[in-house]
């Protein structure tokens, strides 16, 4: 409970307690505080036991520490095997590389081809490359789906 209090802080608290309550009242105050803490712990333990008994046998492994969101998420991540498969899938998919390829295709830059460009001696046109601008008198092609 007080694991983060150092020796200097503990000595300071003892000196303050002696100064505030006096040496003759200090033992009585320590007994009262310890009795109060003991009653609070008993009350808390009985409340937890009542809640567990009311929840039934399907919640026999229920821990109140799991109600803390950080503990709940940590426990779920540790027990979930599907996340391991998801991480493997995530590592196999390189989103940055895919986005760079799409950006290069949109801007008309050449990228390293994943497959050969010519099959059976005929080259397939790259539809994502910028096409030459039409002449001044020539109208652009009409696309009825775009309007």
Structure description:
The protein has a domain at 7-91. The relative contact order is 0.03. Strands 1-2 form a two-stranded antiparallel sheet. The longest helix has 30 residues, at 26-55. It is elongated and about 105 Å long. Residues 115-122 have low confidence and may be disordered. 54% of the residues lie in helices and 3% in strands. The two termini are 70 Å apart. The chain has helices at residues 7-21, 26-55, 69-79, 82-92, 95-107, and strands at 118-119, 122-123. Strand 1 and strand 2 (122-123) form a beta hairpin. It is mainly α. It holds the Pfam family TatA_B_E. One of its GO terms (molecular function) is protein transmembrane transporter activity. Residues 127-147 have a biased composition (Basic and acidic residues). It is a single-pass membrane protein. Belongs to the TatB family.
Reconstruct the topology from this structure.
Layout: H1 7-21, H2 26-55, H3 69-79, H4 82-92, H5 95-107, E1 118-119, E2 122-123
Antiparallel strand pairs: 1-2
């Amino acid at each position: 409970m007080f694991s983060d209090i150092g020796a200097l802080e503990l000595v300071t608290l003892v000196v303050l307690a002696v100064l505030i309550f006096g040496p003759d009242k200090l033992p009585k105050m320590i007994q009262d505080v310890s009795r109060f803490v003991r009653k609070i712990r008993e009350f808390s333990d009985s409340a937890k036991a009542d809640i567990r008994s009311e929840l039934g046998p399907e919640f026999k492994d229920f821990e109140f520490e799991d109600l803390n969101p950080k503990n709940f998420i940590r426990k779920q991540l540790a027990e979930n095997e599907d996340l391991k498969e998801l991480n493997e899938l995530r590592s196999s998919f390189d989103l940055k590389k895919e986005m760079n390829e799409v950006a290069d295709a949109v801007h008309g830059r050449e990228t390293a081809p994943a497959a050969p460009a010519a099959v059976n001696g005929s080259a397939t046109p790259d539809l994502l490359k910028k096409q030459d601008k039409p002449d001044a008198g020539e109208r652009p092609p009409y696309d009825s789906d775009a309007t």
